[in-house]
Amino acid sequence: MNYKKKKLITIGVVCEMTGLSERQIRYYEERELIFPDRSKGGTRKYSFFDIERLMDIAEKMEDGMQTFEIKRLDKKKNTSLRDQMIKGQINARFGQQNEAKGPNR
Question: Locate the HTH merR-type domain: which residues (predicted)?
Answer without folding.
Answer: 8-76
